Amino acid sequence: MHIAQPFNIAGVGTAVPECLVTSEELEQTLGLPKGWSEKYSGVRTRYHAEHETNSQLAAQALRQALDRAGLQPKDLNVVISAAATYDYPLPNNSCMIMHELAPEVEGITCLDVDTTCLSFLTGIDYAARLLASGDAQRVAVVSSEIASRGLNPDHKESATLFGDGAAAFILERDPRGQHGLVRQRMQTYPAAAGYTMIRGGGNAKPFRDYPYDPVMHSFHMEGKILLKYGKRILTTFIPEFFADLPLKYDDVDWVLPHQASKTALYLYYKLFPVPEERKLSNLETRGNCIAASLPTLLAEAIQSGNILPGQTCFLVGTAAGLSIGGLLWKI
Amino acid sequence: MHIAQPFNIAGVGTAVPECLVTSEELEQTLGLPKGWSEKYSGVRTRYHAEHETNSQLAAQALRQALDRAGLQPKDLNVVISAAATYDYPLPNNSCMIMHELAPEVEGITCLDVDTTCLSFLTGIDYAARLLASGDAQRVAVVSSEIASRGLNPDHKESATLFGDGAAAFILERDPRGQHGLVRQRMQTYPAAAGYTMIRGGGNAKPFRDYPYDPVMHSFHMEGKILLKYGKRILTTFIPEFFADLPLKYDDVDWVLPHQASKTALYLYYKLFPVPEERKLSNLETRGNCIAASLPTLLAEAIQSGNILPGQTCFLVGTAAGLSIGGLLWKI
Q: From the CB of residue A295, how many other CB atoms can be counted at a distance below 10 Å?
């Protein structure tokens, strides 16, 4: 199988905030009947950041990845923050991650990419191109998300669904061209942009003119419309993705769908079945961690030895925008 | 000269808000003596968005670029939003740009990159890689910024310095490899991350817990420290950038420094002189438009016939982070 953009994984790391929140606790706080969260969102436990920031979680995950790779921060050429949430509106968060991890290290390229829940796929694509061209020797892609500070407690679905966490991948050149990115594709359906939003806090509804309002300044989604859209676009996206590849969907070793929600995962597996022994999920124990969901799932499966070098992984999902994306990776 | 990532310019476009603000008007509003703005910030007029959004200005610039290229929105494969400001914290702004421009067009990849003031350089680098590999035929890079909604009126330097605007570049494959990106480099100095910030509105100081405060929720910079830093890093960055290139700094046809401020430009030209006839600037008539400054300057010079195909341009500047970046482009 042709590797379009070769690279190796040098190390992976993950981090979660200290505070574990059980669905029982959350149901009490939100005034929901016992068992509601697991039944509707599919989440039993998740972590909520009480004192941590995005860059702290990111630096923790990246330090773990560096330690496992036997590397120092100065060994990195590029740090890509691939996430939808951030410490500050300015500067870009990769700078804050390096400010947290190793402020004394000068000269690394810090850049951010954002395709909301699919940001990790975009980050890997850019990193792969930097490595394959020889312009970088080692690139870190870090997805760190704190969803919990932007949730409306009156919107039960999202208030029980989301969790916080971070994952970091250190990628390095693979001169033999045997591992890395086979294909990455992303497609946006802008007519559906309004169905997943945080309305307040940008230039459309600036802080200056719109005081805090839990509806305006929190995550909002039209779940039912999005599921319909998702079904339609998945149905064509996946066959097209694999149409001219020698490897077919059913031959991929591991399929990792974005941990969007219980219903989204159910719908996904109904359309594109995966045998039980090749399913991977962390929705139940982590919740939907926005862009950190997929790399956390992948990093932990690599670290535990579930996913082995040489195996193929297909990362796939939908994101606010509305975008759909897939990435085929030979580990 | 070797073109590392070839591409051609198919069309360029720019847009500004309706409302032109003269320094005289602004000085009256801010209670400053007449002439203060031109003397200290170097800005005589700038545009401030009264009713426009980032995506509206972006769509206007992109429509102009498409018209000049004789293209339709559906002819694009990828739209990259390369900016520090946005309509909404979610979704990513490229989706909102397409939502504004052509919501019915499905399947274009919409992705955002952010390296604050240098975002356009990152966007061009990513676009160039997509085009050179053949993974995309046409990519739009759009930098649209509304700075005026995040300014503290008590901070005279920034209140008089910034302006709003947008610029769009449509790039397409250059199979002959004669035009495009020669080199792009960016380096971050994270110890200086705290010197340019908007402190409120992200996860570090969430709006839920920190109500609007013109200091916390506005742009803040430590101008004097940054100028010192900038001087130090420029002094090594530019010689290193050109060290192993056949083209030397003095042989570049056009040098376009980021329009950061009058003092920054003065310092830049003092360190790295450019003959008067090869200087380009729009600080006086536009203000510092964050990431939109450089592409606006470049697009207008191309459109007016000042910069000609085959000529070389060096885009250079510093950005919050603190990052320094340069891009050598054969037009």
A: 32
d(CA A151, CA B67): 42
Q: What is the pLDDT at residue B281?
A: 96
Q: What digits encode the pLDDT tens for the residues A312-329?
A: 999 999 999 999 999 999
Please give, rounded to a whole number of angstroms, the shortest distance from the CA of A304 to a CA of chain B: 31
* Percentage of residues in chain A having pLDDT higher than 70: 100
Phi-psi region of B184 (alpha: psi -120 to 50; beta: other; left: phi over 0): beta
**CATH number of the domain residue A245 falls in:** 3.40.47.10
The whole domain housing A86 covers: 1-331
Neighbours of A101 (CB within 10 A): 24
Torsion sign, CA atoms A303, A306, A312, A318: negative
Dist CA A15 CA A66 (whole Å): 13
pLDDT confidence band for B1 (50 / 70 / 90): confident
A113, A133, A188: residue with CB nearest B98: A188
The structure tokens 């195996």 sit at: A311
Phi/psi of residue A45, nearest 5 degrees? -140, 150
Task: Evaluate whether B306 touches B180 at the Cβ level (below 8 Å).
Answer: no
> Following DSSP, what letter does each residue of A242-259 receive, concatenated?
HTT-SS-GGG-SEEEE--
Q: Is B106 left (phi over 0), alpha (psi -120 to 50) or beta?
A: beta
Of A53, A112, A319, the CB nearest to B203: A53
Q: What is the mean pLDDT of residues B225-238?
A: 94
Provide, as residue numbers in chain A, all residues whose Cβ is less than 8 Å from the Cβ of B122: 111
Say if A152 is an interface residue toward chain B (CB within 8 Å). Answer: no
B251 pLDDT above the threshold of 90: yes
ipTM: 0.98
pLDDT band with cut points at 50, 70 and 90 for residue A1:
confident
Compute the average pLDDT of residues B37-65.
97
Check: CB of residue A229 under 8 Å from CB of residue A322: yes
Q: How many CB atoms lie within 10 A of CB A40?
A: 16
A214 contact residues in B (CB cutoff 8 A): 208
Q: B243 in contact with A at a CB cutoff of 8 Å?
A: no
Residue A118 has pLDDT above 90, yes or no: yes
How far is residue A210's CA from residue A200's CA, in Å, rounded to a whole number?
A: 7
> Is residue B101 helix, strand or coil?
helix
- Encode B186-205: b = buried (16+ Cβ within 10 Å), e = exposed: bbbbbbbbbbbbbbbbbbbb
Q: What is residue A96's predicted lDDT score, i.e. its pLDDT? A: 98
For residues A289 and A37, give the distance between their C-alpha atoms in angstroms, rounded to a whole number. 16
State how many domains chain B has: 1
Of A102, A191, A201, the CB nearest to B207: A201
Q: Which amino acid is located at B275 in the chain?
A: P
Q: What angle do CA B220, B224, B227 make, to 5 degrees?
A: 100
Matching residue, tokens 């200056």: A208
